[in-house]
Amino acid sequence: MSHRTLRSLFEIRLRWSDEIIQERALRRGGLWVPDTARNRERLDKAVTLGNRLYGEQTHWIEKRQA
Predict the structure, then answer these.
(1) In the Cβ-directed half-sphere of 48, how many Cα atoms lie within 13 Å?
(2) Residue 50 has pLDDT above 80, yes or no
(3) Is the dihedral of CA 3, 4, 7, 12 positive or negative?
(4) H or E segment to which residue 11 belongs
(5) Residues 40-58 as b or e (16 or more Cβ within 10 Å = b)
(6) What's the predicted TM-score (pTM) here?
């Protein structure tokens, strides 16, 4: 039996402006997740909602090499 493992070379997370008040533990951004299509879609929706609620350019996706 063969098991396939999906690996991502990058990780992404939701980031927001320092002017947005957040819980102390999340002040520097959300948790890092693998840069997969599903995770990217979810974060894109969060960015859209955050920018709608708090103003343009207040939320974005940050990317790093895993």
Answers:
(1) 6
(2) yes
(3) negative
(4) strand 10-16
(5) beebeeebeebeeeeeeeb
(6) 0.77
